[in-house]
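User: Please predict structures.

Assistant: First:
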Amino acid sequence: MPDLELRKFATVVEEIYHEGGPPAGEPLLRAAALAVIRNPFAGRYEPEIQWFMEKLKPLGLDMAQRLAKAVGGAERVEGYGKGALIGAAGELEHGALWHAPGGYAMREVLGGAKAIVPSSKKVGSVGTRLDVPVTHINASYVRSHFDAMEVGMNDAPRADEMLLVLVMTTGARIHARAGGLAAAEITGEDGLR
């Protein structure tokens, strides 16, 4: 990654067969790509930080490509989300810099998904966990795809680091039956329904 100090990268894939009900014929795949990088703003307040989003774009694209491959291809992806954990010497706003590079990278890899990519971010210490929200890639109101994936690394983020995350899933929650808009009913016009 040009101009990024990458310390560590991981891809995690969960195969979910059931949540206490009957086993699914094919498991739901829930996958996360995690990258630990140095936070260039750690330890100080920097008024101009938007330039760093441009530096994060190649990382976002690489992570999105790895994730799509990990779940068997972009055509299998139905849900997505993103998140950022900022080390204690940083600030929450540094995590907001991941919104565009992470979200647009997934949309590009998935062929122009329409729904906003949900996200979470927080400042934390080494070993902090983050729940990354997930929604359907083309309609945020598809209730069966409301989900989350807990992520983290035992040695990150250090005080001067960021742990950046992308998540993709291959379908609805394994025993989804809470009603609401179904994936088959998506009109695909506004990213919501």
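Second:
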Amino acid sequence: MLARVERIDSQLAEYSEKHPNQITADVVFGFLADKPFARRDQGKDFVEFTLERLSSDYARNRIGRSRYENGKSCMNIFQTFLRATRQGTYRSDSIYVGDMTPELLDSYISWRREIKQNSDATINHSLTPILKACAYACEMGMMEPAVNARIQDMRIVTKVSLSEEEAEFDGKSFSKEQMAALLEYYKTCTEPRRKEFWKCSSLPSMPVDSV
């Protein structure tokens, strides 16, 4: 409630600066009812806004046909998410640009993981048109810079895992594959001093020459 009061106070102050001596009871009621004219985003639908940006980028050859179609598909799924989780604002599957928050996107990521069973790479791909639209909305003054900054940091950082064949040496023991590689090196190495060092330091208890 306090956050909403602060937001409305800020909007009223901004409106008063742009329209001196024009704040009336109707204007105040408009802000309280979140009417489009009273909003920073002018009541612009986020999905519509994103699709417009995709169309513009495609028309100017900034993106290819496949990225354009994938972007539209991603936004269709985003609308499904809004409807399924009842997080739409003025309609069940729609939300204003200014209502986009990091918390909403965090919920969207969880939904795609748990309900859609998407991989992190797929989810990151689906976030691309959303993040680009939020960045543009911020540039247009339709979204708070602090909110956009947090949204831009919403991509999932994928962990790099090594396969069994590429497992790191833990400093204590070798895998069978690593041992075989070392023994093969010992047999083929032509440097006497290097072979001696390998025998003494790597496997001091194993009779290497007998392997």
